[in-house]
Design brief:
It is a single chain. The chain is globular, with a radius of gyration of 19 Å. It has one domain. Helix 1 runs parallel beside helix 13 and helix 6 runs parallel beside helix 8. The longest helix has 26 residues. It contains 13 helices and no strands.
Amino acid sequence: MLVFLAALLWLPAFLLPAKTIIPEHSAPLYQLFLFLIGNNVYLHLSIAFVLTIVSGLLLNQIATQFGFTEKISQLGTLVYIIFSGAIVSYTAMSPMVMVNFLMLLILMPLFKVAESKEPILLTFNTSFILGIAALFYLPALLFILLLWIALMVFRVSQWRNYAVSLVGILLPFIFVFTWYFWNDQTPEAYSLFLSSLEFHLPDTTNYSFSDIGIAIILLLFTLVAVTKTSNSLMEKNINIRHILRITMYYLAFVLALFFSESSADSLLMSVPASLLLASVFSESKNPKWFERALRLLLLLVLINQYLSLFYAV
């Protein structure tokens, strides 16, 4: 059922193939990925679609395993599929599709740090995957601060964990820069790295009026989720409280990345917003109201996606 819903949201992208999003200063692994899979836009869309489905399933596993939702629930997947297909530019291959998938792989070990007697291995794994994510989308380096904040929230005070996190995130870059050095392309590597970290005013030119309307609605849903989560934090056990706080910090870091080159960058908000919304919906004392709100959001998102077919005519 959820796969059918995702297919319904992505169908306009296949009927009117969306161009693969290639930022002006693409990160090395994203460039390599596009080179390896070629120029077939339908293959690009298919990979992005499958990654979105897998990401939704991973997010739901995180939601059920770490107390965001009930143990038997598909709510996390549902919310993620709606959020990640809400705006037309989201239903295309982009570095953000990759980063969302990798960030979910990061959250799995990160949320286990508090329960681990030796968190140093989890810290290394988390930071190493983060380094790979940054090679798809260089501004993701900012998330190293999120990792350090998470360690502080979980009260991991050993300096070795912070040192290991730096080693982990830098290791993929050492491999890549070694390749650039070996091929006498070191100046190009530095130029690419610095230009990719430039911040810009948000670009709204790629948004239709319906996209802007949906974006505002998504932000309102997210604001409600953050407010309700903040107000109920003290009712949770300490571990879930820490996890929810880290998720809200994650959302704050994503908002900081809005100042970038592509409107699709806001897709990064899908992971933390979906986790918080799934938590609020799951614990709601008036589930019918939230169910109606979610159905209305789904209807508006579907209308927005299929309106794109008429805009193109």
